[in-house]
Fold this sequence. Notes:
With 233 residues, the protein is mainly alpha-helical. It has helices spanning 8-14, 20-32, 35-50, 60-76, 83-94, 100-109, 117-151, 157-168, 211-232.
Amino acid sequence: xxxxxxxxxxxxxxxxxxxxxxxxxxxxxxxxxxxxxxxxxxxxxxxxxxxxxxxxxxxxxxxxxxxxxxxxxxxxxxxxxxxxxxxxxxxxxxxxxxxxxxxxxxxxxxxxxxxxxxxxxxxxxxxxxxxxxxxxxxxxxxxxxxxxxxxxxxxxxxxxxxxxxxxxxxxxxxxxxxxxxxxxxxxxxxxxxxxxxxxxxxxxxxxxxxxxxxxxxxxxxxxxxxxxxxxxx
Length: 233
């Protein structure tokens, strides 16, 4: 009866067998290999298990499917991985760096020694879905807020507070106040000339550097202005 359920390839292998034991041994070697092959394959799979990490852009469920397939193959070869070791490996060596905050939260709130693997995967999947939802809703919220401001719609107090805080991050131009203090126009240095002193005509100094020349020059300028006023009258 067992022979009737075999395919053509399997039947061709056991066609010459005379006992059920010979049939079983032949099929076992065909599918699992000899003990030497099984040992080599077990070493290779365990090395893959030790180096197993989450791929970039991979979801929790995709990672878990690969992880389960690998551990099941090890189990079929006699290498059984304890559940607590699987939990510890996923938390400390499998997840990407972006999951660090969630890993710390789980380690602080739960007993890792008694945490079930399916509970851990469910927790991580729920957190992953929340992060995806927040990323999708963020642009919509910003566009909706900008539209309400444009249309003059009344905003909630917390929304106005957020807008005000964001607005204060940028310094205001002009003489108005800003987050960094009052805006001051940078001082432009006075233009230097080579004309020298207006009073004495010397080029080795300027009139402002010679108090006596400056006093006499101002006095003469005042007298010229007074004479112009007298003529105008």
